[in-house]
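Entry 14. Structure prediction run on the chain below.
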Amino acid sequence: MRMARLNLMAINKNFGNTMDSDDYDDDEELEEKELDIKLDITKKSRRIKRPVSFADQHGRIMEEILPDAQINAQFIPKNPISRIIQCGPVYAENEVNTVRAEFISQGMNHCEGGWPKDVNPMEADQTMRFRKKVEKDETYVRTALNLAGMMESCIKQNNAIEIYEEYFTEIDEATDCEEPKAKTVNLFRDQEPGWNRPVSSIAWCPDDERIAITYCSQEFLGIQPGTPKTSFIFNIDDPTRPDTILKPPNHLVSSEFNPKDSNLLAGGCYNGQVCWWDARKNGIPEGVVNINQSHIEPVYKTKWVSSKTASELFTASTDGTVKWWDIRKFSEPIETLILDPDSVEGNISKAQGASCLEYEPTIPTKFMVGTEQGNVFSCNRKAKISSERIVGIYKAHHGPVYALERNPCFPKNFLTVGDWCARIWSEDIKESAIMWTSSYTENLRDGCWSPTRPSVFFTARQDGVLDTWDILYQQRSPILSTKIADEPLNCVKIHEQGCLVAIGCNNGGTSLIELSESLSTSHRNEKSSVTAMFERETRREKILEARAKEIRLKEKTKGITGISSAMMLKGSADKEGGVKDSKGITKKVGFAGAMDLLKNKRHSLKPDEPKEDPLVKAEKDFYRIIKEEKELRQSGRKEQSEKEEETSLGAAE
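Output returned:
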């Protein structure tokens, strides 16, 4: 093995002896320094001049530099340390606008032309002479014949292939299998920060997509001190910012848009005052009734009257009165009706408080009022005497009537909602409803008909569920139940197009839901089917009502007969000194004893054959009448088809 050793020695000494001292005067103070650098390289001789190969090795500490305590004391520790690192790629947003196309609308007025200059088309004689002249020309006849052939081929082709023909016309749209659905599209919250006031009423604007929402607690002592009195008008596309902020004199309980002027809104307050607004202005009421002339209790319903001036409205309150107003003279009511069914002149102390109101513009003289006692008053405004204004009374519910609305397609039938069920009534029957829902475990607070489907109505429950009923599909249960909120639902209002429903909740929120096409679009023959159903149920209730009257009359007659027999028995007993009982002992009896003896005598007789239940008999009579009518219709259709066949055979011969 060869050893390679390199010794390098650099000695720096004073070179004053070898160099000129004048040149290096400054180097006298230089100290002698020695630089000793050594590098030993050892390698086997057989590996000399071979290529070098590198390999990975574990790291090892070559030198360790300890921290300097003096420098470390000069630094201030920072805890915690936040670092922000962007891992995603960086994008640049650029906007490009294409060349705008400009469109111009132009119109063209087509006048009669084609006449020569010497012919005035306004003169009938000149045009007639020119037509005769043209018709005598040979080219005219030839051109007309050529055009006639082309027109004839087009007519034949159109008759052979009818592009507008409707196939499968016998299929009923009611057999559509689309599942009824409802989805929430918007939520309107109370805009007063820190408050969740209950929604008291909802009003749709008839012309555009605006909705008025009023807030007021209708519970006893439910209004807390300092509660805001404002209400709002929203656009359904922007639930975050109201279009108009209404500033009433007191908390609004009810509201209604004018159907003829959509900018006018009327409302009733909790303290009984009535006011109206112009939505185009700043929300300050245009008119407010003095509290001395207004109601003395909350105004639960406000309705506009169909009149030429579109300036009349009437309100109903729990103070037992219905008042008519004219916004042109808004200082006092023009008429007042006291809801007292017993008194002729109307006693306000015995009046029943109004909880809802119904008015149909197609019947301008009639209206209906629902009361807190569960009754529905059918009234006529144009009656001459005050006592004749209340035409009839329907005993609808055990508690207050929360909703009252006529069917938009069948005004003679109306819907009432109260206590635990909803009922459908006919004006011809006052004793009982013709249809009703099953009883709920929760109270119902409101309800309304669908304006586009006569068989569909909605009910709002106290557990936050909106039920959709279709009486053509099923009557025992709703076809759709939608959970709106965990709080009670106070009111429900549907848009006139039938596809949007607004539901007011007790927590201050108003949900706007959109119905599926099966719930908003009327099917073919639906109106006729509902008509037949209402007529059938009305006829059935009439038969049952007549039978019940007959039974009551018989019982009344039987009671009178029994009293007269007892009087005769008592008279004979007084003459004979008493009446013999079953053991032959003579006893003195009074009128009550004579009645008991008469009953025992009747029971001791041989019992007759068991009698049929009168209600069951009335049901059988009703279905027998329905069966006879069905057979008559079938026989009539059969005769008509036979006549048509005979007519077709005669035409073929």
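The chain has seven helices and 34 strands.
Filed with the rest of this week's runs.
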